[in-house]
Amino acid sequence: MAKGDPGVTTRGRRAAPRSKKAGAGKAGDPELVQLLTPEGERIESVTGPDGTEYRVDFTDEEYRGLYRDLVLVRKLDAEATALQRQGELGIWASLLGQEAAQVGSGRALRTQDMAFPTYREHGVLYCRGIDPIMPLGLFRGVDQGGWDPNEFKFNMYTIVIGAQTLHATGYAMGIAMDGKTGTDDGEAVIAYFGDGATSQGDVNESFVWAGVFNAPMVFFCQNNQYAISEPLERQTRIPLYQRAAGFGFPGIRVDGNDVLATYAVTRQALDNARHGQGPSLIEAYTYRMGAHTTSDDPTRYRIASEVEAWQAKDPIARMKAFLTKQQLADADFFAEVDEQARRESVHLRERVLAMPNPEPTTLFDHVYPNGSPLVEQQREQFSRYLESFEGSAH
């Protein structure tokens, strides 16, 4: 687990870091904050458009911990995809390619911060200490999601596109009204959504409310280039992060395949929020390597060369290159991480297959906390319907 502070420089461990301004890369590159190039070269610090300096200070073990997170999250996600293809899950939304955006932002959260996910934030869920089996129960259809949002400070998955931004904004307004901001120990909220969700009214309404009420929150957009099958250019005429200016709060674009930069930018934004400086929008510029969900066929709307170009920016490969170049990890370490990932994925599969199927009538159990005569009537009707099949050929 990484615990570094983005406001402190690196300690010069075998690296030859350099500094630059955001967007100072090759011509045509999107303007973004980057601390680790696709080739695994470290950049000491980056100055954002507003003059904020972004940097990280991690121990060697914390750098290795970030790599371990990335590998484990990808392997568990791949296992879930395989389980769905084999008929063991109803559907699955893979995070393949977006691991750095999720691990970087997830590790930047402090214990008291609250997160509101979509249905794809498996990496953030992992960083919040939630058992990876939990979302699989939801997608297998045996429960409605089994974690306690208050215990883990991580809300339930939200399927309705963009709705969680409204929930997050209301929660953040409540934090401010309760006087839980303004100090180093203040609370902050982060809301995750995709580039397609920025076209939803819910998201734009959330921007309005958060801006007007100075809500202590971070809007974290994972721009993976496609809203299901719609490319980014069909969603916006300007970079997404620039939309924040119209609502009266800052926006910034970060290299979403760079776990270090994502951490630094998210931690700074959360700290600004907890100190009462209001909302901000982070656009994590990344790429969905796989399908939108397992019911999607991405080959129908994008070409192979585009995927190959983004594979060269793979978040795990660049972190591995960095660790190797700086002699922070060797072949034995990488092999040990791969073996751990294999063991955990096998264990996850075994647990999914062992999940008991719930009794059909349990769907009525938790509709109301104190029960309801109407719900009980519906339960009895449904029970009689099920009993009608006993002894029949159906």
Furnish the topology, listing elements before pairings.
Blueprint: E1 19-21, E2 45-47, E3 53-54, H1 60-85, H2 99-108, E4 114-116, H3 122-127, H4 133-140, H5 149-152, H6 163-177, E5 189-194, H7 201-212, E6 217-223, E7 226-227, E8 230-231, H8 244-247, E9 251-255, H9 259-274, E10 280-285, H10 304-311, H11 315-325, H12 331-353, H13 373-387
Parallel strand pairs: 1-2, 4-5, 5-6, 6-10, 9-10
Antiparallel strand pairs: 2-3, 7-8
Helix pairs in contact: 1-2, 1-11, 1-12, 2-9, 6-7
Q: How are the strands of the biggest sheet laid out side by side?
A: 4-5-6-10-9
Task: Please report the number of helical segments.
Answer: 13
What is the average of the pLDDT values? Answer: 91
CATH architectural arrangement of the largest domain? 3-Layer(aba) Sandwich
Q: For the record, what is the CATH homologous superfamily label of the largest domain?
A: Thiamin diphosphate (ThDP)-binding fold, Pyr/PP domains
CATH level-1 class of the largest domain: Alpha Beta
Tally of domains: 2
| Low-confidence spans | 2-17, 24-28
Order of SSEs: EEEHHEHHHHEHEEEHEHEHHHH
Rg value: 22 Å
CATH topology tier name of the largest domain? Rossmann fold
Distance between the termini: 52 Å
Record field, number of beta strands: 10
Going by helix content, strand content and strand pairing, the class is alpha/beta
Our estimate of the beta-strand percent is 5-15%
Description:
There is one protein chain. The protein has 394 residues and is of the alpha/beta class. The chain has 2 domains: 332 residues, 3-Layer(aba) Sandwich (Rossmann fold), CATH 3.40.50.970; 33 residues. The protein has 13 helices and 10 strands. The strands form 3 sheets. It has a 5-stranded parallel β-sheet, with helices on both faces. Helix 9 links the parallel strand 9 and strand 10. Helix 1 runs antiparallel to helix 11 and helix 6 runs parallel beside helix 7. The chain is globular, with a radius of gyration of 22 Å. The N and C termini lie far apart (52 Å).
